[in-house]
């Protein structure tokens, strides 16, 4: 298992040409929804993702008990660049990689005196760690795919032997090459912050390779046999020993120790992961959308109510004269209706705004704030079943048991909509010294604890008769949240497509995530 990952999850991957989604368990109480938006060369892109959450009536999640601010409180968003894609071979051999860039920068005369070169070196150190993490993940995904796609009679060894060998060879090449830079960074006149960046990346790479070796050890143990298995296991164990010894030698602190709680190891591994990813994160500024329009429309509602009150006052003054009892009554009645017309107008206009205006607008900029890269807009609301597009209802595929579980009523439904516009030329200007930037990751963590409050006990005892005796067996009580996502690309124009995911919950939190085939 890789450090910091919760691996007992069902993975849901889906693509509409320029949009890719992954839903997984982040921890016991949070799901992580990751959207990848692809950048298209020399043209702006505009996507919409509408997510419908179908909620059982028994959970008590209503528009009154779970308002907009509650939803946004439970959502945590991260927007970052998609990690540039290079496999292990390319990381070693390609000339447009962080390793090659660091090598070139260190050959520039007086590089240690240039603040701009310092920035580029730190950026490439972080990128190396982030890209290695991605390359290792893709390498294991390829191994898993080859194993899963193999026929029952196929020999696994020929399918994955070369991938295990490549893992060992390429990781050795990466560490040898990167650690050869130590002498250049470890000099008195090199800035301390730059040397620290080098060491943090060295530690992060060591951890990634060690964790990868442990995962590969598990694969080899279960999939290979004979002398080839023994040889690979020996080499993988040796790789773990080398990386552990390297971190101990440099006193990095991220070393697992038997009999220790290993708090420092966990803490440093988490910090190093964030440190490497920080080079990909973008600057965001969230603001409420439609405030000016809302105030203008409310002013219109107030004006209409004032017109009514003024007409009533003028009419009765003209008919009965000033300072008469009928005029006095008319003014009171006019004020009463003026107030109600104003509030009714505000309510009607608020409902209109909910359909036309988004709740929040996020301006996406480069990390230095100099380049505006795009705009993300969000809105959330409860909707009725009759207002949901028929393809979404077909994807939900509700059956009789669902209706019976909800006492014949429809499920409660939350619709969460995102629209994002990305400016391709701005990305090109902002990241001209990066490896090719292909898109954005929009990562949303959603806390499901509000859904757990009204759930029954997660395990209930049931009696049944067997062999003439009463026996007790446990029965698990679960609840289902169904999530249907609808994707559309406006620029370029693509068809609407749908996915469905089921969250299985108990009072103790998330039990599993299931992808439902459509």
The strand line-up of the biggest sheet is 6-7-8-9-4-13-14-15
What percent of residues adopt helix (DSSP H or I)? 40-55%
Number of domains: 3
Rg over CA atoms, rounded to whole Å, is 30 Å
How many DSSP E strands? 15
Shape: globular
Distance between the termini: 31 Å
Chain-averaged pLDDT: 84
Instruction: Give, in order, the helices and strands.
Output: EEEEHEHHHHHHHHEHHEEHHEHEEEEEE
Proportion of strand residues: 25-35%
Helix and strand composition category? alpha+beta
Q: Which ranges are low-confidence, i.e. pLDDT below 50, for 5 or more consecutive residues?
A: 1-18
Largest sheet, in brief, is: 8 strands, antiparallel
Enumerate how many helices there are, as a single number.
Answer: 14
* Assembly status: single chain
Walkthrough of the structure:
The protein is 46% helix and 25% strand. It has 518 residues and is of the alpha+beta class. The chain has 3 domains: 225 residues; 192 residues; 67 residues. The strands form 3 sheets. The chain has an 8-stranded antiparallel β-sheet with strand order 6-7-8-9-4-13-14-15. Strand 11 and strand 12 form a beta hairpin. Helix 4 packs antiparallel against helix 5, helix 5 runs antiparallel to helix 7 and helix 7 crosses helix 9. It is globular, with a radius of gyration of 30 Å. The two termini are 31 Å apart. The N terminus is likely disordered.
In short:
The chain has 14 helices and 15 strands.
Q: Secondary structure elements and their pairing?
A:
Layout: E1 12-15, E2 19-27, E3 30-38, E4 45-55, H1 68-73, E5 75-81, H2 88-93, H3 98-106, H4 115-149, H5 156-179, H6 182-185, H7 192-223, H8 226-249, H9 263-277, E6 283-288, H10 291-320, H11 325-356, E7 360-365, E8 372-383, H12 390-396, H13 400-405, E9 412-422, H14 424-430, E10 439-447, E11 459-466, E12 469-476, E13 479-491, E14 497-506, E15 509-516
Antiparallel strand pairs: 1-2, 2-3, 3-10, 4-9, 4-13, 5-10, 6-7, 7-8, 8-9, 11-12, 13-14, 14-15
Helix pairs in contact: 3-4, 4-5, 4-7, 4-9, 5-7, 7-8, 7-9, 10-11
């Amino acid at each position: 298992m890789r450090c910091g990952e919760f691996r007992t999850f069902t993975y849901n991957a889906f693509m509409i040409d320029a949009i890719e989604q992954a839903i997984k368990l982040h921890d016991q109480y949070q799901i992580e929804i990751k959207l990848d938006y692809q950048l298209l060369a020399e043209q702006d892109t505009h996507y919409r993702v509408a997510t419908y959450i179908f909620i059982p009536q028994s959970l008590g999640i209503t528009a009154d008990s779970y308002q907009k601010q509650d939803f946004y409180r439970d959502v945590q968003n991260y927007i970052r660049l998609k990690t540039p894609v290079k496999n292990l071979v390319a990381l070693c051999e390609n000339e447009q990689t962080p390793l090659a860039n660091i090598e070139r920068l260190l050959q520039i005369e007086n590089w240690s005196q240039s603040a701009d070169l310092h920035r580029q070196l730190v950026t490439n150190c972080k990128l190396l760690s982030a890209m290695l993490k991605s390359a290792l993940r893709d390498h294991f995904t390829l191994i898993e795919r080859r194993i899963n796609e193999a026929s029952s009679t196929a020999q696994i060894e020929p399918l994955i032997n070369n991938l295990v060998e490549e893992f060992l060879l390429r990781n050795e090449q990466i560490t040898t090459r990167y650690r050869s830079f130590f002498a250049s960074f470890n000099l008195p006149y090199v800035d301390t912050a730059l040397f620290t960046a080098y060491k943090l990346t060295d530690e992060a790479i060591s951890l990634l390779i060690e964790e990868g070796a442990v995962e590969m050890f598990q694969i080899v143990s279960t999939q290979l046999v004979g002398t080839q298995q023994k040889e690979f296991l020996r080499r993988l164990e040796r790789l773990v020993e080398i990386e552990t010894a390297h971190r101990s030698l440099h006193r990095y602190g991220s070393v697992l120790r038997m009999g220790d709680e290993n708090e420092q190891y966990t803490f440093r591994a988490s910090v190093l992961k964030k440190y490497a990813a920080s080079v990909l994160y973008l600057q965001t500024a969230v603001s409420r959308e439609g405030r000016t329009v809302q105030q203008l429309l409310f002013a219109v509602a107030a004006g209409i109510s004032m017109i009514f009150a003024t007409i009533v006052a003028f009419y009765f003054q003209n008919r009965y004269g000033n300072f008469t009892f009928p005029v006095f009554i008319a003014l009171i009645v006019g004020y009463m209706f003026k107030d109600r017309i104003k509030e009714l107008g505000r309510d009607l206009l608020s409902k209109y705004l909910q359909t036309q205006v988004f709740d929040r607008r996020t301006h996406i900029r480069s990390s230095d704030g100099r380049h505006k890269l795009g705009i993300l807009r969000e809105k959330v609301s409860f909707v009725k079943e009759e207002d949901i597009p028929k393809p979404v209802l077909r994807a939900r595929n509700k059956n009789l048991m669902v209706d019976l579980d909800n006492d014949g009523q429809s499920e409660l439904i939350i619709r969460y909509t995102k629209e994002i516009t990305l400016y391709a030329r701005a990305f090109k200007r902002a990241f001209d010294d990066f490896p090719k930037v292909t898109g954005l990751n929009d990562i949303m963590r959603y806390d499901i604890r509000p859904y757990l409050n009204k759930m029954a006990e997660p395990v209930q005892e049931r009696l049944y008769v067997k062999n003439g005796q009463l026996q007790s067996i446990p029965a698990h009580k679960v609840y289902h949240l169904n999530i249907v996502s609808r994707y559309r690309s406006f620029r370029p124009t693509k068809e609407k497509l749908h996915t469905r995911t089921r969250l299985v919950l108990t009072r103790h939190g998330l039990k599993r995530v299931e992808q439902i085939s459509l």
